[in-house]
Design brief:
- 2 copies of one chain form a homodimer.
- Chain A is 32% helix and 20% strand.
- By secondary structure, chain A is an alpha/beta fold.
- In chain A, β5 and β6 form a beta hairpin.
- In chain A, α4 packs across α9, α5 packs across α9 and α11 packs antiparallel against α12.
- The longest helix of chain A has 17 residues.
- The mean pLDDT of chain A is 95.
- The interface between A and B is medium-sized, with 27 and 37 residues.
Chain lengths: 401, 401
């Protein structure tokens, strides 16, 4: 359902909504027939919310599709990730909280190593350490071009962000320069439409300047450019849903995605307890609260079942304090599954619980993948959840007469 | 799935389909953990159909969205309400069976009261009684304009319908004149595109004439205009689904929506037994039958749990007679939920049962919200149901070779 139609139904009045995201929440059993991480975790408070509320499973993007963190969160914010697609350059810039402006063009870039014949020998330049890469990035930041200011910010190891600020508006439809495998020459930046020709020319000029500044090195002597993209002109979350929205996250990437849709995002220290303070401190001034808790995903990515269990238990421990703050509707879920047996994001649908009036009873008396399958909501799309939470908060008018 | 693609698969042969709509069927428990209205009702005949057939839950519009009666029924007729949106003016005209023609522009209007400074003092003119409003509507019906015939028909209390019949085709994209709250002046009718400029001018002239005819009154001395809309040029139900379609309803609104998609609609007395006669009398001449039973919704809107239970039991009592008429496929459901604990329509998914060959067995051995959750169909969209019924009636060819 399109956001402008939701905006027409969202009058602005109603209860307060808390979205508590346990990153990478969904999991898989360690051994066949066993519990998932969430099912193995002792989560009395989440179980109580599940018992009193209603449960289900959601597909952040679509069944079978493994979501990245950007699309996973956009879905939870009510933005269909198949409609609202972010470029990787923008996501990388958001991840380091680079203040992208309208018209800026962001590129996800990294150092690579060319051989003597000018072919790509190592697409990641041996993942050179930060200490070596940061001064190189500073060197590239000094590049000056005709027609655009350009900024380079180091991210981590071989990765950096390049942002162009063109003097005249320019498109972002430019192909990646990464040839995809070693032994091939770097591809030229090619525009896919006329409006993006100036951008392609600027990037070609920048690559030439970068090659000069890295000349003489045997490693990290060139850069690859990917995900050329600009900040999208999307409807803002407060305008669509009629809620003043506050976000709290320890990691910049999640604050970045929240800001991208117009939330007021703040940095909190890592761990669950700071989220309680973040909620309580701003509770009176906002209607919607997005609290992001990263550790389950990190443990899953590391393939550490027990650490993911412990992370989920840490998330559970603060639930009484979150409830105590007084939100009318509480939605607890993940942005995707990160099964520790896979050590990666996965496509498996994500359990969610919705605690708010008025609801049918269901058979989910604990919070877990199997219990949620028997929940009142069945299997829905990730971007359906905002509407369900809004309905429960009394914030959506009737559709049609 | 688009209607023109369904039309290509619907050959015209196959069994007869009965759609029996219990308006506002879905509900909520009166107390936590208790039965819903449908679950509390003694419905041996519907239970038998559910046991022999297959069950599920449907979202008429989308998860979290509370449907109006128009969108709810359009979904059951196979028209996605997110694609086929009716204006409120058209729905109000349908509700009094005004014979809207192509090019007619319908407006949902009502009397309001302006204060001495010309600001809206009461947006509903004290909900003046019909006896007072009807003669005022007759006065407005006498208004004559250059460029359009115009007709006013009283609906109920302060509400009436204004229909323009412009001499030249004119658009219907004109904003409401209702300022939304008291203390503000009436808004001028503003066109949102060039094609609708003539309509905006006609409405402005009509408002001027209406003010003259209501001058001197202290109450109901002006009119507000909303939902300016014209009859949409939608594909007709008989053309899409290849079925001659007969509708029977006691209330004009539902006959109106059935006619809007090209069904042959007839008036029946209120209550369930007349629906049996309506089905049997036309059984030989039609392929599809829409029977509308209003009382569950009315009881739900009135917040009367017990009366909704009784209404559902009344609907159940005629099921053997409906079966006796010999339809090949029977679909029983609601156009939306109307939980009596909410005294209003709601977004909760609606139970349905589909009785027809050949089907997998499922765990639904009674007809109710909880049982339907364990049904073979899971949770589907309202506009999916027509395809499921058509398939069971042997009316849909294979998609692709």
């Amino acid at each position: 359902m399109e956001l402008n139609r939701i905006a027409r139904l969202a009058g602005g009045g109603g209860g307060k909504v808390l979205l508590y995201v346990l990153d990478g929440l969904g999991g898989l059993p360690r051994e066949p027939g066993g519990p998932t991480e969430l099912e193995a975790a002792r989560t009395p408070h989440l179980d109580e919310l599940a018992r009193a509320g209603t449960c289900g499973l959601h597909d952040p993007v679509a069944p079978g599709i493994t979501p990245g963190s950007g699309p996973g969160h956009l879905a939870l914010f009510g933005y269909d990730p198949l409609v609202y697609e972010t470029g990787r350059g923008v996501l990388e810039a958001l991840g380091i909280e680079f203040p992208l402006g309208p018209g800026d063009i962001a590129v996800r870039a990294n150092f690579c190593t060319l051989d003597a014949r000018g072919r790509v020998a190592d697409r990641r330049a041996g993942r050179i350490p930060c200490a070596e890469a940061a001064p190189l990035a500073a060197r590239l930041n000094a590049i000056e071009l005709d027609g655009a200011r350009c900024t380079v910010r180091h991210v981590k190891e071989h990765r950096f962000v390049l942002v162009l600020h063109p003097e005249a508006p320019a498109g972002d439809a430019v192909n990646d320069t990464d040839p995809g495998r070693p032994g091939l020459p770097i591809r030229a930046p090619v525009a896919r439409n006329a409006a993006s020709e100036p951008t392609a020319r600027l990037l070609a000029a920048w690559l030439e300047a970068a090659a000069e500044r890295l000349a003489g090195r045997t490693q990290a002597n060139m850069a690859l450019l990917r995900g050329v993209s600009s900040q999208p002109g999307w409807p803002r979350f407060p305008d669509v849903f009629g809620m003043r929205a506050a976000a709290a996250a320890a990691y910049p990437m999640y604050r970045g995605v929240a800001r991208l849709v117009g939330m007021d995002a703040r940095t909190v220290p890592a761990g669950a307890p700071p989220l309680v303070d973040a909620l309580k401190a701003r509770f009176a001034d906002y209607d919607f609260f997005f609290l992001h808790f990263k550790p389950p995903d990190k443990a899953g990515e590391d393939g550490d079942f027990d650490r993911k269990v412990a992370a989920i238990e840490e998330a559970d421990a603060i639930v009484p304090d979150l409830v105590d703050a007084g939100p009318d509707v509480i939605l607890v879920t993940g942005d995707h599954s990160t099964p520790s047996v896979m050590s990666s994001h996965s496509w498996h649908p994500v359990p969610f619980l919705l605690h708010g009036p008025p609801a049918r009873s269901d058979d989910a008396t604990t919070f877990g993948e199997t219990a949620c399958r028997a929940g009142a909501h069945g299997r829905v799309r990730g971007c359906d959840l905002m509407r369900l939470a809004m309905a429960s908060a009394g914030r959506l008018a009737k559709f049609g007469a």
